[in-house]
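Long-time lurker. I teach an intro course on protein structure, and each term I like to show students one example going from raw sequence to a predicted 3D structure in token notation. This year I'd like something fresh instead of my usual example. Would anyone be willing to generate the tokens for the chain below so I can use it in lecture? Attribution to the forum is fine with me.
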Amino acid sequence: MNTLELLDKKELLKKEAEALIASAEKEVRKLIDPEQSRFNEITNELTEIDKQIRDIEQSNKKNFNKINKPTMEKFSLLKAINDVANNRQLDERAQEVINAGIAEFRKAGQNCSGQIILPMEERANIQATVATAGQENVAEDKLNILEPLRNNLVLTQAGATYLTGLTGNVSIPAYSGSSVL
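-- Reply from a regular --
Happy to contribute to a lecture. Here you go:
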């Protein structure tokens, strides 16, 4: 399960627990044995879901901390754009980054066009200019930039399923219900 699915499951379990408590409060009574046991099961499941979410977040942090930082700092998007615009050959690091972007597109089964194709998973340190000392590194957490975007898609929040890792031609069955015009 991914983070989005875990959060959805967590929300459903919370609503179920709230419904159990609300029905007991409405009748001005304590939870009876079957309700109490279900409430305890929900509590245990919520604890497990929280643990799984933490594990996924830690795994994402570890994956992004493995990025080779010294080579990341050598790539300059502005320099690459300038080189392409002035019909100059790209340097070695720029070519590595573009090849990684092309490989990412191919892995996803997508066609790519253009001269500069960037991979989605690489980001460099932010540089801050200081009047007396030049550029200083600014500390930041480098997390997956796609996961928060996927979590906030309007259609995903409305219940649509987001399919990841698809390659090649994928056949998705058409909706057979009636349509309203």
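Some talking points for your students: The chain has a mean pLDDT of 78. Residues 33-65 form the longest helix (33 residues).
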